[in-house]
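Question (not urgent): is this output format expected?
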Amino acid sequence: MDPAAALRPVVLPAGYVFDEDILVPDREPFPLHFGGELPRVEIAYRIAGADGAPVVAVLGGISAGRNVFKVREGVAGWWDEIAGPGKALDTDRFRVLGIDFLGGSHRTTGPGHGEVFQSVSAHDQATCLTAVMDHLGIASLHGCIGASYGGMVTLVMGAKHPTRLRHGIVVSAAHRTHPMSTAWRSVQRNFVRYAIEHGEGERGLALARALAMTTYRSVREFEDRFPGEATRHDGRFVFPVEAYIVSRGEAYSRTYRPEAFVCLSESIDLHRIEPETIAVPMTMVAVLEDQLVPPADMRTLRDRFGSACQLIEISSMYGHDAFFKESEVLRDVFYRTLE
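Got this back:
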C-alpha cells in the first residue's frame, strides 16, 4: 500500500499554528557538557504545522536551524524538499519544532567575530531543545528526527531525556565519529583557524567548505556529474568539479560565520555516547555510500543499542547528503515510525 495514499483519509483540526521566538532559559549561567559555562544563552526556535497535531522535533546538520520548511514567503526552509504540506514529513499531520544550534551562526547564542567559543556538545543542544519544550509546555515529543549532527542530538535525547521522547529517527549519525571523518574535518578547521588569524576568515571557510563538499556526496555522483575536461580561465586550467566545489564553498562562506563553523565542526568530532544507555526506540537510516558515517558504525550502534532499534540501509548516489534528496525513502520511514 502506498504510504502517502494511506495518510489522506485522516483529517486533523483545520488551520496551521505558527510560533517563533527567542527563549532565554531561567538558568544563568548556562553550564556546558565539557565544562565551563556561558553567562547567558538565547535559544531561537520555530514551531509550525497543523493545529492540534503531534509535535516532532527536526534537527539537521550544523548549518541547519529553526527554519525547517517554508512557512511564508521569503523564509525558506533547509529541508523544504522533505518537510511541508503533503511532503515526506507532512506538516498537515505534524507540528514541526526546529531550533538554531548553540554555537552556530544563526540567532541562538554563538561566537562573535574573531571569538573562540567554548566547546559545545550534542548534550548541550539536547538541553536547549528540552528548554524550548518546557517553554512551550511540551511534556514529550511524538518524535525527534535527526540527520547528521541532528542525529547525534537525537541519540542524546534518547539516552539523557528518555521521558521527553516517544520515538527517534536517526539518519546518517552514530554513537561516535569515525576517525577518518575527524581527519577530514580537522584539516577544514585548521584552514579556517589559520584564515581567521590572518583576517581572511571568510576565504578560509570557503576553502574548508569546498573540501567538505567532496565528503558529502558519493564517488559515483561526482563521476556522473563532472566527466568533462578542464578549460582555461584567466590563464590557468579549471576543472568542472573544481568550479562546482569552489562555487559552493564561496556561497556558504557568505551566509555562515567562520567561528561558528569551527565550533560546531569540533562538536561533531567530540561526539561520544554509549549505545547501551539509549532508552528510547529508534529507527535509523544508514546510506551505503556515506563517506562520513560508514554503515558499519551504525550497525555497531544497532547491535549495542539499549532499547528497541531498527536499522534501514539504503543506497544513494547522494551519500551523506541523501537526507536532503531521498524523499520517497524517508516518506516510508516517517510513515512507518511516526504513524
